[in-house]
Structure prediction request, 204 residues.
Amino acid sequence: MIVTCVNVYVKEEYIDDFIEATIENHKNSILEPGNMRFDVLQQKDDRKRFTLYEAYESPEAAAEHKMTEHYLKWRRTVADWMAQPREGIPHDVIAPLERNQW
Amino acid sequence: MIVTCVNVYVKEEYIDDFIEATIENHKNSILEPGNMRFDVLQQKDDRKRFTLYEAYESPEAAAEHKMTEHYLKWRRTVADWMAQPREGIPHDVIAPLERNQW
Prediction:
């Protein structure tokens, strides 16, 4: 299992567009066979900041996500809306370790 | 719904102790009625850094977590093991919005 926390900082005028494009990416990503979660969060005290919580059952499944059509479309779509480059931080899972808890 | 991402930086010599105490906190926290997730993650490229992913169905439920015996015990236990203060970042949920997806 691998969980990547992606920190996103969006230009203020593109917040709504970013949310729309990222919900579409979420809907497609959770259908990938190796996906466990793909949560989209907006920071309470700064609406320009988002966290994507991308959980995959293996590093290979996480890598395959980046080759999907929906990811590539999302990446292209949001490129000009970033206020700074995204930062993805990969993690190992300590708990829960049961696959059915994801 | 509210998700707090807690960034933790542990002194190297206490990594194993921190993992043990935090797994215990995880096991108790997921039993709280308002809890949706309580994931414990260790950063791949720096084993001293952890992320706690604490999802609750309401801000009230998240606040109640901080009054539970297991949270207070965990807080006391890990206090001296921190390399720097923990940082909790609260988020609103954009997706998934269905309660049963948590």
About this structure: Chain A has three helices and four strands. The beta strands of chain A are 2-10, 35-43, 49-56, 82-95. The radius of gyration of chain A is 14 Å. Chain A has a mean pLDDT of 98.
